[in-house]
Amino acid sequence: MNLKRNFGFLLLMGAVLPNAYANVGMTPETENVQTIAQSIDEVKLKELQEFRKKYKLADPKASESELKTAQMALKMLMLQRTGEYSATGADLWGDKVMNQHLRDVAKNVRVLSYGALTLGKSGKADLDLYLDFLFTHNFFVRMPKLVYSNYSDVRKIPTDLMSALPVLDDVRKAKVIAAVQKLLEVDVIRQGDKAIMNWISSDYIFNVVPYVFNLAIANPDDQQAIQDLQLLSGFLRVCTRYNVGNKDILKPDGTGFHHNAHYNGYMYSYRTWVEYFNRFKGTSLKIDRKSYERLKNAVVTLYMTAICAEGDKNRIYANSMAGRHPFYSIEVPFTQELFDRLIEVGGDAMGTDIDKDLASYYNYFFKTNKYDVPAADADGFYQYNYSAAGVYRQPGWVAVMRCPTAMLWTGEIYNKTNRFGRYQGHGTLEVLYEGGLEPTGYPANNDNKGAGWDWNMMPGSTTVHYTDWAEMMPYKNDKDRFDQKAKTTNFAGAVSMKEYGLYGAAFDQGDHWGSQRFVPTNLTFCKSVLAIDGMLFSIGNGISAKGDYSDDMTTATNLFQTIVTKKYSDLSVNGKQVGNGGNMTIPSADAVTMINPVSTGFFVPAGHDEIKIVYGKQETPSSQGLAAKPATEVAAKAYINHGVKPEKKSYSFVVVPAADEAKMKDVADRQTKGELFNIVEMQDSLHIIKYVPKNVLAYSFFTPAKGVSAGEVVSTATELLLIEEKDAEGNLKLALSNPNLRPKMIDKKNWRETPTPAFIELKGQWQIDGNAQGIFLKTMENGNTEVSCLLRNGMPVYVNLKKVK
Q1: Dihedrals φ, ψ of 337, to 5°?
Q2: What's 38's DSSP letter?
Q3: What DSSP line would sit under 698-716, residue for residue?
Q4: How far apart are CA 691 and CA 675, in angstroms?
């Protein structure tokens, strides 16, 4: 391998072998190389030949005017040939080759390559002379590295340079391949596993891997081509390993990271992964089963965060997961076609025709019976604690809960992009309906980039309402960046009991991103949501805000905001329709039921802070900033008004997706009678919710706690989320996780998850019923039982217990 690297470097430096396959003047070292080349595994050589047949490089293309300009520019260089593979001329690039130089040279190579293809010998002579000049002057040794996130350069420049490969002799071809490999840092795939994991980038996988493959199969040296393909396959497999911290890409819960947080929008890198493992299917380069299972988990997770659809269109995920593209570009960045291919790749990895398990998910996600397996029963509750998120799936809709932590942002604000994304995931509870943006109540005109939406009010969020849009942007301008995180807290996430689950978050407002970018509001809150039996019961307390901001900025918990359309226009309050222009205030003493225009129902019991309900036109700016054109929309919205700069306010309400009046009346009656949800505790350090019909207790332990008496749990030595379900025979099911990943900094920018040793005290003596790996029980001196386990990566731990008689 080192010999090959050195050979590539010599090529870049202008060294040549007049005949790459001649036996003239061979040293023992080169003779050994040839011997190895002659002994290449016949199977791998056949695979390489098949790749070359199937994936041929495109011929170079250019216009006639481009060709004339390039020919004239070449004449003006007045190059002189000094050898068979060398030429001299004026050095045009000074001390440093810049990106623009690189763009210009790559374009010239493409255009002259077109000339070599169309003009014959004279065109070939021009291209060879120009390339020999570049190599003689070490142009490619001096060129800068490409930034993978510069999607224009990283796609255009290598493509232009590689357009020469179909028309070059083997010596110059090898030189160009070495140059492009250096440009794209292909040596990355030759690093050890640890180095790859430390460096890994989803941009590299998406943008560069196709070039690595094409460079490999274009290499005239069969041995090196096979070796590079093997290295590429190994690199892609290593990249599926879980990176437990903020680095790209895959996390143990299936989420994918980019820019140091879960980022669905950038997971189009999965497309490249699947495309190239599909190419390797049935060959010696195919994916192994463990790597496949991790990639499969990632793709399934991507779909789990979104609604179902019959195809790729309108398969949206929550706006709180939109990164810097609110309400647009939030369709799942993976295709039905690739899902089909992944099912076949899985079969290849398993030694079967298809992966039947993934095929059942396909039938579920795409609402089809294409594969002869039952559709997966994927409704239920999912925890994604590397995203600080919980996802509740039910037929026809998906509810997503999310909140920032000190390490995981939920709003990414860029130059003229998502300028008002400060509250994008501020303890949100979004209900997404099949059909896309309009049935969900979100702005559906992508050209408006969210204009017409009240950026203060994401559903379920708790926020301080800005009255001046400029104040809502970092540094009050359209360009400065910001990642919205919590100031100090890292507790936000969920625990799943599979069919249902609990979400909990403790939040304090972050205003800094390198420097202070907003006037601080010092907003704080704790909130929990128990999602069960098609309902979501949301409670919150500790809602406070203070600071030197305007006295007209209200702190609110936002119930809903819906963009009204012809199809979705009905707003019901206490069973009566509210028309356009109708504003209402519901006083504290009155309970209220509402069904918003997209059929999400709300019941807020009496004792709340006053509720504001608004139905009417609103003009707001585009997510691109104040310089962009605003738009007007008709919106229906409701929020709990906690007042200006409140202290320790609270709330509770029930959310019922896909509701009608009869269902809301039933929920309101049963909740009022105490037959549904009860708030057992709502302190700053502890929330306990009881769901009466199933004898479920859901605990949000924001801090360690003692003396708890709501159910069987007495104390916990650590913060965590816990669900306790007791059946009629007195048997106990527990589900627990710590959404706090307890991040530990490993350098100034990067962190790793730290496991949580958990110790739970239960009343009386219990024993494990069945298997519970990693769970340990101990009888305490007071006769109670201590349950201990290690909580890692925010993942759940389950145990079934029965009382010792």
Answers
A1: -60, -45
A2: H
A3: EEEESS-B----SSSEEEE
A4: 8
Same fold, 379-560+611-649 and 683-805: no
| Alpha carbon distance 82, 558 (integer Å) | 75
Instruction: Quote the CA–CA distance of 578 and 111 in Å, as a whole number.
Output: 65
- Size (the chain), residues: 805
d(CA 558, CA 640): 6
Contact by Cβ (8 Å): 280, 287: yes
Q: Domain-by-domain residue ranges, the chain?
A: 1-239, 244-377, 379-560+611-649, 683-805
- For helices 170-183 and 121-136, angle between their N-to-C axes, nearest 10 degrees: 50
CA–CA distance, 158 with 178 (Å, rounded to integer): 12
The per-residue pLDDT for 24 is: 38
- Report residues of the chain scoring pLDDT below 50: 1-7, 9-10, 16-26, 29-30, 32-38
* Domain 683-805 indexed as CATH 2.60.220.10: yes
Dist. CA 479–CA 473, nearest whole Å: 9
Query: Phi-psi region for residue 176, left (φ > 0), alpha (ψ -120 to 50) or beta?
Result: alpha
Write down the pTM of the prediction. Answer: 0.94
Given the candidates 2.20.130.10, 2.70.98.10, 3.30.70.660, 3.40.1010.10, the CATH classification of the domain at 379-560+611-649 is: 2.70.98.10
Rounded-to-5 percentages of helix, strand, coil across the chain: 30, 25, 40
